[in-house]
Amino acid sequence: MNMHPHKLYLLLINLVGGAAVLASYVIGIMNHPETRGALWGEVPRAIMPVYTISMFTAAAGYLAFTYFIMFRLNPDGATIAGHFSYGLFPWLYALVLVPSALWMPLTFVMLGNPSRICWIGIRAVLGITGIASLLLLGALITVQPAAPVWAHRLAVIGCAAFCVQTALLDALVWTAYFPTN
């Protein structure tokens, strides 16, 4: 089976980047059982259920838009915003996954040894992830051809749910409630 090079890059980025994100979570939680609850910072208990629901919808959304991009788009015929090729997708995924893999290790460093530079790093990785997610949403909204329609709509809805988690809850809400001193 021959796979288009851009799809192969996207697959590799998802496999390596996804494994790195999951490994950072597992290793972080296993190595810091005494402070894993501190990852919430001072997020009010009243909005924690929103986070829990959003994490699941973001994960389902990720699967939906990745399915569309990997299995429903033809890399040779797809254009994004009338200017970019399918080759933009691997870059956007890398901009989501690489910083995502850095969040938990940086946060545990911040919990153990708070510093301004570490806080800037945390804000940067969350900001990059959120912006890349929004760019991915924009790419999905403007991609042509957007067929089949049902898969495209599901991908856009899924990416919007992913953006709620990454660009709103993580990059803005969580950082507003995390103690920096």
Describe the structure in your own words:
- The chain has 181 residues and is mostly helical.
- Helix content is 73%, strand content 2%.
- The chain has five helices and two strands.
- It has a two-stranded antiparallel ribbon with strand order 1-2.
- A hairpin with a 3-residue loop joins β1 and β2.
- It is elongated.
- The model has no long low-confidence stretch (mean pLDDT 95).
Largest sheet: 2 strands, antiparallel
Number of strands: 2
Strand content: under 5%
Strand order of the largest sheet: 1-2
| Helix share bin | over 70%
Shape: elongated
Q: Supply the helix-strand structural class.
A: mainly alpha
Alpha-carbon Rg, integer = 17 Å
Written as H for each helix and E for each strand, in order along the chain, the element string is: HHEEHHH
In terms of per-residue confidence, which ranges show pLDDT below 50 for 5 or more consecutive residues? none
- Number of DSSP helices? 5
Q: Terminal Cα separation, in Å?
A: 54 Å
**Mean pLDDT figure:** 95
Task: Write a concise keyword list for the protein shown above.
2 strands; 181 residues; two-stranded antiparallel sheet; 2% strand
In short:
With 181 residues, the protein is mainly α. Helices cover 73% and strands 2% of the residues. A two-stranded antiparallel sheet has the order 1-2.
Any chance you could write out the topology, listing elements then pairs?
Elements: H1 5-31, H2 48-72, E1 79-80, E2 84-85, H3 88-112, H4 116-142, H5 149-177
Antiparallel strand pairs: 1-2
